[in-house]
Every structure is written in C-alpha cells, then in structure tokens.
Design brief:
single chain; alpha+beta; three-stranded antiparallel beta sheet; 3 strands
C-alpha cells in the first residue's frame, strides 16, 4: 500500500510540474473542454509574491542569495471536494488558478487519465522540445579549444 501511495505522490508531483510549465493557452483551452468554472471555489489567491533564489558555486560551495523571482500561487476546491494547489513562476494569476484547478481535477480518479492525456503529456512534450532546441542552439556555439590550431604553427 505504501508503494501505491508513493506512486500516486510521484504522479501528482509530475502533473503539478507539467501544469506549472504549461502555456496559459493550453490550460485555458483544456479547462474549457472539462466544464465551466461554476464548480470551482477559490480557497486562496491567486496571490503574487517573491521567492529568494539561492545558489552554490561549483555545486558544492557555500549557499548564497542569487536574487528574487516573482511567483504566483493559488488554491482552489472543486465541488466534489478535491483541493488543488499551484505555484507558478511569474506574475500570472489566471495561469496559477488554472494550474490549481487542474491539480484538483487530477486528484479525481474519474478525470485523472483525461488530464494526463489532454494537459500533462502535451505540456511535458512541449517542454522537452524547448529543452532540445536550447541544447542544439547551445551546442552550435560551443568551441573546442583543444582542437583549435595555434597561430604560430
């Protein structure tokens, strides 16, 4: 039973990550297919605030404050009782509210598969594609200093 709970927790964590990186348009269009907003009650927010970003030099050095980033959080409750939470980078109250709504919807066993197919999978695929493009652009500008010809030879 404990592994089942851990599996569900990991699945929800993956889904919440997908909601946070999803485009607001994807979330809005997908929620339009799920139903109207009438069965959603705001519990908290959306609220805009700041978080402190911390870093480490070399990955092992002492932590230091790098700077602040804007975040938006929201919590909602569906009429069926599920409570959804969201914390998204940036100042986008509507996206945070939609992400929280999808977190709550994902918790409903009868909606989970549909949320996975219509929101989680496309969002993660789009993120992977963006990461791949960035890696390609970065690789195209990489210089290998060991193979460069010296000017005096």
């Amino acid at each position: 039973m404990e592994s089942e709970s851990a599996f569900a927790e990991e699945g929800r964590r993956r889904a919440m990550s997908a909601f946070a990186v999803a485009s607001p348009r994807l979330l809005s269009e997908a929620w339009g297919r799920f139903g109207d907003d009438a069965d959603v009650t705001p519990v908290r927010g959306p609220e805009i605030g700041l978080v402190m970003l911390r870093g480490r030099i070399g990955g092992g050095g002492g932590p230091f404050n790098l700077g602040e980033a804007s975040v938006t959080r929201a919590t909602v409750r569906l009429s069926s009782g599920e409570v959804g939470h969201a914390l998204v980078l940036g100042r986008d109250p509507q996206k945070a509210r939609l992400a929280a709504m999808f977190d709550a919807a994902w918790q409903r066993p009868d909606w989970r598969e549909r949320v996975e197919v219509e929101v989680v999978a496309p969002s993660l695929a789009a993120q992977e594609e963006a990461d791949r493009k960035l890696a390609e652009e970065t690789e195209a500008t990489r210089v290998d200093f060991f193979t460069m010809v010296r000017g005096e030879d």
